[in-house]
Amino acid sequence: MIVEKHKIENFIRALERLLATNFQRKIDADIIMLHAPKHELSIILYLPTAMGRLAQQSPRTVHIDYDQIISDSDKLCGRLAALFGNGQVVYARKTVVARIDKRVSISFLEEHHLQAAIPGKYRYGLFHEGQLVSIAIFSGGRRMRDQHEKYRSFELIRFCHKTNFRIVGGLSKLLQAFIKDFRPDDIMTYVDRDWSHDSNLATLGFKEVGTAGPQRYAVANGIRRPVESHSSSGELPVAIAGCYYVENSGSTKLLLRL
Protein backbone atom coordinates (compact mmCIF):
# COMPACT_ATOMS: atom_id res chain seq x y z
CA MET A 1 0.00 0.00 0.00
CA ILE A 2 1.04 3.62 -0.50
CA VAL A 3 2.01 5.45 2.70
CA GLU A 4 0.91 9.09 2.69
CA LYS A 5 4.08 10.54 4.18
CA HIS A 6 2.86 14.13 3.92
CA LYS A 7 0.02 13.34 6.34
CA ILE A 8 2.50 11.94 8.84
CA GLU A 9 4.61 15.08 8.52
CA ASN A 10 1.55 17.29 8.94
CA PHE A 11 0.63 15.37 12.09
CA ILE A 12 4.12 15.77 13.55
CA ARG A 13 4.21 19.49 12.82
CA ALA A 14 0.77 20.00 14.36
CA LEU A 15 1.94 18.25 17.53
CA GLU A 16 5.06 20.38 17.69
CA ARG A 17 2.94 23.52 17.54
CA LEU A 18 0.52 22.28 20.19
CA LEU A 19 3.27 21.16 22.59
CA ALA A 20 5.56 24.12 21.76
CA THR A 21 8.47 21.78 21.17
CA ASN A 22 10.70 20.41 18.42
CA PHE A 23 10.86 16.63 18.38
CA GLN A 24 14.11 14.75 18.10
CA ARG A 25 13.50 12.24 15.33
CA LYS A 26 14.83 8.76 14.67
CA ILE A 27 13.50 7.08 11.54
CA ASP A 28 13.88 3.60 10.11
CA ALA A 29 11.96 1.76 7.41
CA ASP A 30 8.96 0.89 9.59
CA ILE A 31 9.00 3.19 12.62
CA ILE A 32 9.34 6.90 13.37
CA MET A 33 10.43 7.71 16.94
CA LEU A 34 9.77 11.22 18.26
CA HIS A 35 11.25 12.42 21.54
CA ALA A 36 10.40 15.62 23.41
CA PRO A 37 12.93 15.89 26.26
CA LYS A 38 11.22 18.74 28.13
CA HIS A 39 7.98 16.73 28.30
CA GLU A 40 9.72 13.40 29.06
CA LEU A 41 7.63 12.13 26.18
CA SER A 42 8.32 9.67 23.38
CA ILE A 43 5.86 9.02 20.56
CA ILE A 44 6.41 5.99 18.36
CA LEU A 45 4.65 5.99 15.01
CA TYR A 46 4.23 2.59 13.35
CA LEU A 47 3.94 2.31 9.56
CA PRO A 48 1.86 -0.50 8.03
CA THR A 49 4.92 -2.74 7.60
CA ALA A 50 5.96 -2.50 11.29
CA MET A 51 5.85 -5.68 13.36
CA GLY A 52 5.05 -5.49 17.08
CA ARG A 53 5.68 -2.75 19.63
CA LEU A 54 8.96 -1.28 20.85
CA ALA A 55 9.77 -1.06 24.55
CA GLN A 56 9.33 2.11 26.62
CA GLN A 57 11.63 4.86 25.37
CA SER A 58 11.03 7.42 28.17
CA PRO A 59 8.94 7.86 31.36
CA ARG A 60 5.94 8.29 29.06
CA THR A 61 5.76 6.52 25.71
CA VAL A 62 2.74 6.68 23.41
CA HIS A 63 2.34 4.20 20.55
CA ILE A 64 0.38 5.31 17.49
CA ASP A 65 -0.41 3.36 14.33
CA TYR A 66 -0.47 4.75 10.81
CA ASP A 67 -4.21 4.16 10.35
CA GLN A 68 -4.91 6.27 13.46
CA ILE A 69 -2.91 9.17 12.04
CA ILE A 70 -4.84 8.98 8.78
CA SER A 71 -8.31 8.68 10.33
CA ASP A 72 -8.02 10.41 13.72
CA SER A 73 -5.26 13.00 13.46
CA ASP A 74 -7.24 15.74 15.21
CA LYS A 75 -8.31 13.45 18.07
CA LEU A 76 -4.72 12.31 18.56
CA CYS A 77 -3.43 15.88 18.67
CA GLY A 78 -6.14 16.92 21.09
CA ARG A 79 -5.52 14.01 23.46
CA LEU A 80 -1.75 14.47 23.47
CA ALA A 81 -2.05 18.20 23.99
CA ALA A 82 -4.45 17.67 26.92
CA LEU A 83 -2.03 15.22 28.54
CA PHE A 84 0.52 17.98 28.79
CA GLY A 85 -1.62 20.81 30.05
CA ASN A 86 -2.91 22.35 26.83
CA GLY A 87 -6.55 22.93 26.02
CA GLN A 88 -9.42 24.64 27.81
CA VAL A 89 -9.54 23.85 31.52
CA VAL A 90 -12.91 23.29 33.21
CA TYR A 91 -13.23 22.36 36.88
CA ALA A 92 -15.70 19.60 37.67
CA ARG A 93 -17.23 21.65 40.48
CA LYS A 94 -18.49 24.03 37.78
CA THR A 95 -20.22 21.24 35.86
CA VAL A 96 -23.55 19.47 36.23
CA VAL A 97 -23.75 15.67 36.01
CA ALA A 98 -26.73 14.01 34.32
CA ARG A 99 -27.74 10.74 32.69
CA ILE A 100 -27.56 10.86 28.89
CA ASP A 101 -29.20 8.69 26.24
CA LYS A 102 -27.58 6.26 23.82
CA ARG A 103 -27.81 8.57 20.82
CA VAL A 104 -25.98 11.40 22.59
CA SER A 105 -23.29 9.13 24.03
CA ILE A 106 -22.57 7.39 20.71
CA SER A 107 -22.32 10.72 18.89
CA PHE A 108 -19.94 12.11 21.53
CA LEU A 109 -17.71 9.02 21.49
CA GLU A 110 -17.54 8.96 17.69
CA GLU A 111 -16.43 12.59 17.69
CA HIS A 112 -13.98 12.53 20.60
CA HIS A 113 -12.87 8.98 21.52
CA LEU A 114 -10.16 7.03 19.70
CA GLN A 115 -11.77 3.62 20.20
CA ALA A 116 -15.04 2.29 18.84
CA ALA A 117 -18.19 3.85 20.27
CA ILE A 118 -20.02 1.48 22.65
CA PRO A 119 -23.47 2.25 24.07
CA GLY A 120 -23.02 0.37 27.34
CA LYS A 121 -25.87 0.09 29.84
CA TYR A 122 -25.61 3.32 31.85
CA ARG A 123 -24.37 6.65 30.51
CA TYR A 124 -23.40 9.79 32.42
CA GLY A 125 -22.30 13.19 31.17
CA LEU A 126 -20.85 16.40 32.57
CA PHE A 127 -22.31 19.65 31.28
CA HIS A 128 -20.56 23.02 31.48
CA GLU A 129 -22.75 26.01 30.66
CA GLY A 130 -25.09 23.68 28.79
CA GLN A 131 -22.32 22.02 26.77
CA LEU A 132 -21.51 18.31 27.13
CA VAL A 133 -17.79 18.17 27.94
CA SER A 134 -17.18 14.69 29.38
CA ILE A 135 -18.88 11.29 29.50
CA ALA A 136 -18.53 7.92 31.24
CA ILE A 137 -20.14 4.70 30.00
CA PHE A 138 -20.78 1.76 32.36
CA SER A 139 -21.85 -1.86 31.90
CA GLY A 140 -24.73 -3.51 33.70
CA GLY A 141 -24.07 -5.27 37.00
CA ARG A 142 -22.39 -8.67 36.88
CA ARG A 143 -22.44 -11.44 39.46
CA MET A 144 -19.04 -12.73 40.59
CA ARG A 145 -18.65 -16.45 41.27
CA ASP A 146 -16.26 -15.92 44.17
CA GLN A 147 -18.53 -13.39 45.92
CA HIS A 148 -21.87 -13.53 47.73
CA GLU A 149 -25.11 -13.69 45.73
CA LYS A 150 -25.93 -9.97 45.94
CA TYR A 151 -22.41 -8.82 45.02
CA ARG A 152 -22.38 -6.77 41.81
CA SER A 153 -19.42 -5.70 39.71
CA PHE A 154 -19.70 -3.03 37.02
CA GLU A 155 -17.27 -2.01 34.27
CA LEU A 156 -16.29 1.50 33.28
CA ILE A 157 -16.27 0.84 29.53
CA ARG A 158 -15.52 4.27 28.06
CA PHE A 159 -14.51 7.66 29.42
CA CYS A 160 -13.45 10.74 27.52
CA HIS A 161 -13.47 14.52 27.50
CA LYS A 162 -14.42 16.77 24.63
CA THR A 163 -11.38 17.25 22.35
CA ASN A 164 -9.12 20.10 23.49
CA PHE A 165 -10.75 20.19 26.94
CA ARG A 166 -9.37 19.15 30.32
CA ILE A 167 -12.03 18.55 32.95
CA VAL A 168 -10.20 18.63 36.28
CA GLY A 169 -11.89 16.17 38.63
CA GLY A 170 -14.29 15.10 35.88
CA LEU A 171 -13.98 11.33 36.19
CA SER A 172 -14.23 11.50 39.97
CA LYS A 173 -17.53 13.39 39.73
CA LEU A 174 -18.93 10.96 37.15
CA LEU A 175 -17.95 7.98 39.29
CA GLN A 176 -19.52 9.50 42.39
CA ALA A 177 -22.82 10.00 40.56
CA PHE A 178 -22.84 6.41 39.30
CA ILE A 179 -21.91 5.01 42.72
CA LYS A 180 -24.68 7.02 44.41
CA ASP A 181 -27.28 5.68 41.95
CA PHE A 182 -26.27 1.99 41.81
CA ARG A 183 -24.12 1.29 44.89
CA PRO A 184 -21.78 -1.16 43.13
CA ASP A 185 -19.51 -3.45 45.14
CA ASP A 186 -16.72 -2.76 42.70
CA ILE A 187 -15.97 -1.04 39.40
CA MET A 188 -13.38 -2.43 37.02
CA THR A 189 -11.86 -0.93 33.90
CA TYR A 190 -9.04 -1.43 31.40
CA VAL A 191 -6.32 1.09 30.60
CA ASP A 192 -4.80 1.09 27.11
CA ARG A 193 -1.07 0.39 27.47
CA ASP A 194 -0.40 2.11 24.16
CA TRP A 195 -1.04 5.32 26.10
CA SER A 196 -0.23 4.65 29.72
CA HIS A 197 1.66 2.08 31.78
CA ASP A 198 1.11 3.99 35.06
CA SER A 199 -2.53 4.99 35.23
CA ASN A 200 -3.58 8.14 37.09
CA LEU A 201 -6.73 6.22 38.09
CA ALA A 202 -4.68 5.11 41.10
CA THR A 203 -5.39 8.52 42.64
CA LEU A 204 -9.11 7.59 42.62
CA GLY A 205 -8.51 4.31 44.43
CA PHE A 206 -8.21 1.90 41.49
CA LYS A 207 -5.71 -0.93 41.98
CA GLU A 208 -3.97 -2.96 39.29
CA VAL A 209 -5.26 -6.55 39.33
CA GLY A 210 -4.03 -7.95 36.03
CA THR A 211 -3.24 -7.40 32.40
CA ALA A 212 -4.76 -8.32 29.04
CA GLY A 213 -2.45 -9.31 26.21
CA PRO A 214 -2.02 -7.43 22.93
CA GLN A 215 -5.04 -7.19 20.62
CA ARG A 216 -4.55 -7.77 16.92
CA TYR A 217 -6.48 -5.81 14.32
CA ALA A 218 -6.96 -6.07 10.58
CA VAL A 219 -6.93 -2.68 8.85
CA ALA A 220 -8.66 -2.35 5.46
CA ASN A 221 -9.83 0.83 3.76
CA GLY A 222 -8.89 2.78 6.88
CA ILE A 223 -11.16 0.70 9.15
CA ARG A 224 -9.72 -1.58 11.83
CA ARG A 225 -11.46 -4.70 13.07
CA PRO A 226 -10.35 -7.07 15.85
CA VAL A 227 -8.83 -10.36 14.76
CA GLU A 228 -10.64 -12.77 17.05
CA SER A 229 -8.64 -15.85 16.22
CA HIS A 230 -5.48 -16.93 14.44
CA SER A 231 -3.54 -20.12 14.00
CA SER A 232 -2.03 -21.99 16.95
CA SER A 233 1.41 -21.08 15.60
CA GLY A 234 0.62 -17.40 16.23
CA GLU A 235 0.67 -16.55 12.54
CA LEU A 236 -1.87 -14.07 11.23
CA PRO A 237 -4.26 -15.03 8.43
CA VAL A 238 -3.15 -14.12 4.94
CA ALA A 239 -3.94 -10.48 4.23
CA ILE A 240 -6.42 -9.60 1.55
CA ALA A 241 -5.53 -6.93 -0.98
CA GLY A 242 -5.01 -3.56 0.72
CA CYS A 243 -5.27 -5.07 4.22
CA TYR A 244 -2.56 -5.13 6.87
CA TYR A 245 -2.36 -6.02 10.56
CA VAL A 246 -1.47 -4.10 13.71
CA GLU A 247 -1.03 -5.26 17.29
CA ASN A 248 -1.35 -2.99 20.30
CA SER A 249 0.42 -3.15 23.67
CA GLY A 250 -2.44 -4.75 25.56
CA SER A 251 -4.28 -3.35 28.57
CA THR A 252 -3.94 -3.06 32.33
CA LYS A 253 -6.93 -4.23 34.38
CA LEU A 254 -7.83 -1.98 37.31
CA LEU A 255 -10.35 -2.47 40.10
CA LEU A 256 -12.03 -0.04 42.49
CA ARG A 257 -13.44 -1.84 45.53
CA LEU A 258 -16.26 -0.07 47.32
- Which second-level CATH architecture of the largest domain applies? 3-Layer(aba) Sandwich
How many helix segments? 4
Span of the ends, CA to CA: 50 Å
Q: Using DSSP, what is the number of strands?
A: 16
Task: Explain how this protein is built.
- A 7-stranded mixed sheet has the order 6-7-8-9-11-16-12, with helices on both faces. It has a 4-stranded mixed sheet with strand order 1-2-3-4.
- The chain is globular and about 55 Å long.
- Strand 13 and strand 14 (223-226) form a beta hairpin.
- It has 4 helices and 16 strands.
- Helices cover 22% and strands 36% of the residues.
- With 258 residues, the protein is of the alpha+beta class.
- It folds into 3 domains: 1-86, 3-Layer(aba) Sandwich (Trna Endonuclease, Chain: A, domain 1); 88-169, no CATH class; 185-258, no CATH class.
Summarize the structure in short.
This protein is an alpha+beta fold.
Features:
258 residues; alpha+beta; 7-stranded mixed β-sheet; 4 helices; 16 strands; globular
Q: How is the topology of this model organized?
A:
Blueprint: H1 5-19, E1 24-27, E2 31-36, E3 41-46, E4 60-65, H2 66-83, E5 88-91, E6 96-99, H3 102-112, E7 122-128, E8 131-138, E9 153-161, E10 165-168, H4 170-182, E11 186-192, E12 207-212, E13 216-220, E14 223-226, E15 243-247, E16 251-257
Helix pairs in contact: 1-2
